[in-house]
Amino acid sequence: MAQLRKRVLVFMQLTILFVCAVLNLADAQGLKVGYYEKTCPSVEKIVKQATAKFMSRAPTLAAPLLRMHFHDCFVRGCDGSILLNSTKDNLSEKDAPPNLSLRGYQVIDGVKTAVESKCPGVVSCADILALVARDAVSMLKGPVPYWKVPLGRRDGRVSIMQDTFTNLPPPFFNISQLKSSFASKGLNVKDLVVLSGGHTIGTSHCSSFTGRLYNFTGKGDMDPSLDSEYAVNLKKKCKPSDVNTLVEMDPGSFKTFDEEYYTLVAKRRGLFNSDAALLDDKETGDYVKLQATTQGYTFFKDFGVSMVKMGNIGVLTGEAGEIRKSCAFVNYY
Ligand code: HEM
Ligand SMILES: *[C@@H]1O[C@H](CO)[C@@H](O)[C@H](O)[C@H]1NC(C)=O
Ligand SMILES: *[C@@H]1O[C@H](CO)[C@@H](O)[C@H](O)[C@H]1NC(C)=O
Ligand SMILES: *[C@@H]1O[C@H](CO)[C@@H](O)[C@H](O)[C@H]1NC(C)=O
Ligand SMILES: *[C@@H]1O[C@H](CO)[C@@H](O)[C@H](O)[C@H]1NC(C)=O
Ligand SMILES: CC(=O)N[C@H]1CO[C@H](CO)[C@@H](O)[C@@H]1O
């Protein structure tokens, strides 16, 4: 009897150890909601108020701010490296061609200043960017997704322009290239189709997709996977070598965070090859079709889940990195 009790006890201890190990693993990144509870309890309020000020003046900033967080996370992890300015020796991520349409750095700097005035040297720029991306989206008109942002990221000290070429998926990627790009960041096929839904807001330069309209295979042709009526409209807006014109990615509702993106992709009206490619895989294709209909609509909830996963990519925690004083520059010691 005593032996049985002992065995049960050992079993329970092992179980507890195992559960702790699993929890620990899940928490290995160390980010948590409310991370600044003791050190800067009002941080979320300050960020929200400061972001709201910018958003009330320029609501279209939500799209580039969301995209900025994506670009930060895919290059060297979510460490604020996208925010660093070039130095005399190094060109930084900011100055890479894929940044062409990134804007809103002044929002991050403004929010950082507001946070610093209350809690100097405590909150990282990487965390501020993650919060601003969420807040800017949640301030758009209409129903919007909302998610809790785990915090505790530290800022990196390195930003190299070339890193963007190898880490950011370009708009001409096909489905297998997209899947492996996301997999290399620890994101799965569902995250790919869900996060692509970010293209429900914002605008694109013609140059990101004119390859589909003119000379697609070098025979003066157009991408056959693009709806021809839509292609005619796009050709009216974008001449072959146009690099300046902006078009709405989700025409008619590019300011609204809705499921229209999936409706368009399902109708072969996705703007980039990477959008259209979502129809070339069973899992992503099924998801597109499901979100395009009202039954089974889970986009908002899914988006929050995948944003949290994206926000965990390669984060610096603990003693790694630093808390930048100014988001555009590493600290000077
Ligand atoms: C799946 C791979 C992706 C590719 C290939 C891609 C590519 C692009 C390209 C080429 C643009 C237009 C840039 C321009 O010409 O101005 C763009 C815009 C945008 N992307 Fe993506 N993207 C991807 C994933 C994402 C993700 C994960 C998000 C966020 C969750 C995102 C959010 C946005 C937003 C909001 C814009 C509009 C920006 C603006 O209005 O300035 N994209 N994307
Ligand atoms: C840092 O870069 C941003 C955006 O490229 C620019 O607007 C700003 O003036 C730069 N700051 C300094 C001090 O050079
Ligand atoms: C500058 O570039 C070098 C080599 O690419 C890199 O090792 C260094 O960390 C970079 N410095 C910054 C501040 O990004
Ligand atoms: C995607 O592109 C790569 C590289 O060009 C190619 O090897 C692969 O076969 C393509 N996959 C699909 C599904 O088209
Ligand atoms: C189309 O592409 C082919 C092959 O790259 C090139 O030889 C031709 O000049 C291009 N035509 C136009 C109109 O750009
Ligand atoms: C906002 C910003 O920093 N844009 C830069 C993007 O990169 C180009 C060079 O490719 C710079 O000229 C822009 O200033």
TrEMBL record:
Binding sites annotated in the UniProt record for Ca(2+) 2: T200, D250, D258
Catalysed reactions listed for this entry: 2 a phenolic donor + H2O2 = 2 a phenolic radical donor + 2 H2O
GO cellular component: extracellular region
GO molecular function terms listed in the Swiss-Prot or TrEMBL record: heme binding; lactoperoxidase activity; metal ion binding
Compartment list: Secreted
Superkingdom of the source species: Eukaryota
UniProt domain Plant heme peroxidase family profile: residue ranges: 30-331
The protein's name: Peroxidase
